[in-house]
Amino acid sequence: ECEFQVHNFEYGKSTLPVLGDYVWYDVNGNGVQDEWYDANNEGVVTKNIPDAEGAIDYSLWEWIDFNGDGSYAGPANAGELNAG
Ligand SMILES: [Ca+2]
Ligand SMILES: [Ca+2]
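Above: query sequence and calcium ion SMILES. Below: predicted holo structure tokens.
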């Protein structure tokens, strides 16, 4: 005979690093997953243009617009931004 078992996993705001779409550390502490790896440390998202062989220098990767829509936001662009 089966009985339903209920387990509540309470959650709330945390000051610790949290798991988001990726492992995510809220570097700027604004509670929004808007960090990315700013390779050239200029404070804006730099678009990387792959070379003729479709390659970029991985150490410089900030954003590659794989689908060519000019955006890195939203599910359609998942994986384009080098999320911090
Ligand atoms: Ca940049
Ligand atoms: Ca895109």
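The chain has a mean pLDDT of 84.
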